[in-house]
Sequence to fold (112 residues):
Amino acid sequence: MLKRLYAARHVTDAHLVRGHLESCGIAATIRGEWLAGGIGELPLDACSLWVDEARFSEAEQALRDLLSAPADRGLWTCPRCGETAGNQFSACWQCGAEKPAQAGGDSSPSTA
Ligand SMILES: [Zn+2]
Fold:
């Protein structure tokens, strides 16, 4: 019996969470993403992540870990070469461009 764990903002988000759960040994099913291609009326972001009821609390814990992990929130994209780097880097490892001030955005709502 599957139970809904997480309502994803978009397909990429669902895949990110599923990948994390699978790395924790928990199988997860994404529902909804294929409907967007098949029917065409449903929005792409209408997808959710389902896990077996027996693993639900484990999955919930894994999800919490993922959502609170700074590494997953702090990714930024290099404005010069488009490379993705973690927030712990203050410059692009690929081309050396400095991290843009607004990078990593939503984790710090403070305004300067
Ligand atoms: Zn770069």
